[in-house]
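Technical appendix A lists one of the benchmark inputs used to test multi-chain prediction within the project. The record comprises two sequence entries:
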Amino acid sequence: MHYFVWLFDHAIFAFSLTVMASYAFLAIYAAMEMVYYKRKTKYIDYGILVASPLAPGVSLIAPAYNEGLNIVDNIKSLLSLFYNNYEVIIVNDGSKDDTLAKMIAAYDLVLSQEVVNLKLQTKPLRGIYRSRNAAFRRLVVVDKVNGGKADALNIGVNVSSKNLVACIDVDCILEQYAICKMVKPFMESTKPVIAVGGVIRVANSCEIENGRLISTQVPSQFFPRIQVLEYFRAFLMGRMAWARMDGLLLISGALGLFDKQIMIAAGGYNHKTVGEDMEVVVRMRGYMLERKLPYTVKYIPDPLCWTEAPVDAKILGRQRNRWTRGTIETLLLHRKMFFNPKYGIIGMVSYPYWFFFEWMAPIVEVLGMFAFLIFGVLGYANWPFALVMIGLIYAYAVMLSFCSILYEEVSFRQYPAWSDLFRLMATAFFEPILYHPRQLIWSIRGNIDWSRGKNTWGEMVRTGLSAQPKPTAAGPIPNANPSPATAATQS
Amino acid sequence: MQQLPGLVLAELILMPSQQTVLTIATWLMIISWMLVVGIGVFTVGARVYAHKQQRKKIAIEAVVTDWLMEYVMMAEDATETELSALLEETSTKIKNHYMGSSFARRVVKAVMLDMNRHVRGSVADALHRLYTSLLFDVLALQTLNYGEWHEQAEAVNELTLMQVPYSLPYIEQHRNHRNKLVRLQTQIAEMKLNENHPLGFLSEVKTPIHAWHQANLYAELSKLPKEKIPSFRPWLQSRNYTVVIFAIKMVRLFNQLDLQPYVLMKSLHPHLEVRREVWQFVSYFHIAVGAELIEHLLPDAEPEMQLVMIECLGNLQTMESEQLLEQVIETDLYGLRIEAALALQRSGYDVLGRWPELAPPPPPLVTPQPAH
C-alpha cells in the first residue's frame, strides 16, 4: 500500500509539474507574441481599408434563434461597422418567437427569389429576404428550418457572395474596426491564411448604447467577473502562444473569419457536434495538411468582440458542459491526428495538449481528490505532501491570473478604473476556491453527458446587453485605433 | 561506494524520495507566491507609471504646442533673418527643457509630427527647419541604420512625415528589407520623397508586394495630384508577379484605359493571381472583347480560373457574355451551371423565371406575422 501511495504522490506531482510547465511556457511565449504584435501594429492605419476598393469582400454570418428581444439593435450594430465591402447575413434558424417578423418590419424586407449554390448540405431554406431600402442593401436575411448553429452557419456560407466569411454571434458587439483588423492577416501573410480568430471580451456591466460599447467596466456579478479573468487567460495567454506556434486549434464561435473556399472544400461546419467552432478549425487544418498545402491560421489579440457572459451558475454550467462535450467530440472525430507526425505541430503538440490538459486534466484532478480521500480514510495519506500540493496549485493558479491581468494592463488596458484592477486581482484569489470546484463538476458532467450521447446545446437564457444597467464609475473605452502620432508616445 | 553524479541526478529525476518531492513542491509554492506578489506590485506599478507618464506627457505637450504655435505663427510672415533668430530662440528653449530625456524628446517629436499634418507651405518649411535644428533627422537616420526593425520602421515613418528629402538614399537601402513593415514604410517613403519618380522603386522591388501593402500604396498614390500618377505600363512587364498584380489594379483604379491591350495580354500569365486580376479588370471596364476571350480560354482553364471567368461574364453584361452563360447553364458545361446562374442573376437576369428547376428545394414556406 505504501508503494501505491508513493506512486500516486509521484504521479500527481509529475502531472502537476507538466501542466504548470506547459502553462509557464505558454505565458512566456504569449508575452513574446504580444510584444511582436504591438510593435507590428504601431503604425497601422486601418482607416485606409475602410473605403478602399482593394479591401477584400467579407460576409458576416450571424445565426439567430429566438433573438426577437434585441435582433433589430444587433443588426443595426453589425451594419454600422467601419468597412465598405461587406454584407451581413442573418440566418433565422427557425425561431419560435417574432425574430423574423421584427426584422422584416424594421428593415423593410421582401422575399427575394434567388438561386442558391447549396454546396453545403443544410436543413431546407424557407426564403431569402432583402431590403427595399437602399440604406440596408448590405443586409440579407435567410429564413430556414431549425437545424442548430452549425447548420445555420452552413446555409450562410452557401448564400454568401464574398470570399471571406466571418462567423459571429448575432448578439455580440463588434469593435468598429473589427473587420479591418481581421482581414489584414489575409492580405499580408506570405502563406495562405485559412482562418483568423479574434478576442472575445465580457460585456456585462459595460455601458452600451445603440449596439455600441460606450464604456467598459468589470462586471459587478461574480460569475461574469470570473469569466473576465478566464477570457484574459485564454485569449491573452493561451491562444496568443498557440498562434505564435501556428498550433491554434480553436477559434471562438463568437468571432472568426474564414476562407470560404477552404471551408467549403473541408465540408463546412459539422452539425453533429456541439463544438462546431473548434471542429471546423481542426478539420480545415487537417484538410490542408493532408494535401500538403501551405497554410496558416492567425489570431488578433485586440479586443474586437464583446459578448454577454452567463450570469448564473446554472447557465454557465450548461455552457461549460457543452464546451467539454464539444472538445471531446472534436478530439475523437480527429483522433487520427493524435501524435501523428503527418499533422506536424497539430498532431504532435496541439492535439496531445488538448487531450491531456483540456480533456483529461479535470478527470485526473477529481480522481486525485478521491484517491487522497480514500488514502486518508485508510490512514495512508501523506498529509504534508497533500497540503503543499494544494498550496502550490492555488498559488500557481493565482499567479497565472495575475500574469494575465498584467498582460492586459500593459497591452490593451480595457478597464481603466483603479477599482476594476483591484477587483480583478481580488477575484484571482477567490476563483480557485469558489469557482474552480464548480468548473470541475461541470466538466465531469460534460464527460458523463457525452458518454450518454447527449448532443443538445441546452437553453441559454440571456438578458440582452442593451438591458445592462448603466455603470456608475466606468472608464471610457481606451482609444482602440490610436493615430500613429499618439501611438508613438503611448509606447 | 560513492555513486557517480550522473546516477545521483538520474535517481533524483526518475525516483525522487518523498522528502525530495516535498521540498521541490514547497519551493515551487514559495516561488509562485513570490511571483504573485511581484507581478501584483509590477502591475500596480505599471499603471502608476503609465499615469505619471501620461500626466507628464500632457504637461509637455501643452508647453511645446504653445511654443510651436507661437513659432509657426511668427514664422509665417518673418524675413529670413527674423526666422533664423526665431528658430534659434525656439530651438534653444526646447533643447534646454526637453531634449535631455528620451521620453520628453519623443513627446516633442510627436507634437511636431502631429502639427506637421495640419500645416502647408512656409509654415511647414519653418517646422521642418526646427525639426532639423533639433537634430531629430540625425537621430532618425542613426536609428534607421542601427535600430531594430520596429525602430527602423518608426524612423522611416518619421522622416517621411517630416519630408526629409536627403534621407531618401538611406531609406532606399531598406527597400527589400526582410521585415514587411520596414519594407512598406520604405516604399511609402520613396513614393512621398521621390517627387520625380514616385513609383520608381517598383522596378527594383524583389520582395512580394502583398495585398495589404498594395492597399497602403494605393492610399498614398490616391493623394497625389493626377498628373503625378505615372503610366503603369513598365510594371506590367515586371518579373515580380506581385508588381504585375499591383500594376493591373492601378491601371484599373486610375482609369488608364489605353493600357487595356497590355493588361489583356496578361490573361496568359503563368501566375493564377495575375490572371485573376486580369478578369477583374475586364469585369470592371465591361470590356466587350472579354466574352470572346473567355470563350476561347475557358476550356483549358483550371477549375478555380473557370469560376473567375464565369463571374466575369456575369459582370460584362453584353449579348455575347449572356449567351455564353446561357449555354453553360443549359449544358451544365464543366459543372458550372449554378455558378453561371448566380453570375447571370447578379446582372439582373430573371434566372428562376427561365430555369425554375434551379430554385432551392421547395421549403415549407411560412408567411411571417408582422410585428406589433
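DSSP finds 19 helices and no strands in chain B. Residues 69 and 115 of chain B are 9 Å apart (CA to CA). Comparable benchmark entries are summarised in Table A2.
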